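hey can u check if this looks right to u? its 66 residues, i copy pasted from the old doc so theres a chance i mangled smth
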Amino acid sequence: MIVFVVSILTVSSVVMGNLAFRAGLGVKRWALLGLVLGPVGYPLFSTHKRFAIKRAQGKGASQINL
């Protein structure tokens, strides 16, 4: 049981680190958060990523998704 939990936390850490790298966010911070919180940290990551995009665009900007 403990091996299963540790493996889930490790996989979550690697995935969160990869997602943070692709989004241009702090890799170590999000990998550590994935290691501590596991998959529960993904909603936090998504929210932070969305806010970072809005902050980079500035006020009144719009985004076109293709």
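The chain has a mean pLDDT of 90.
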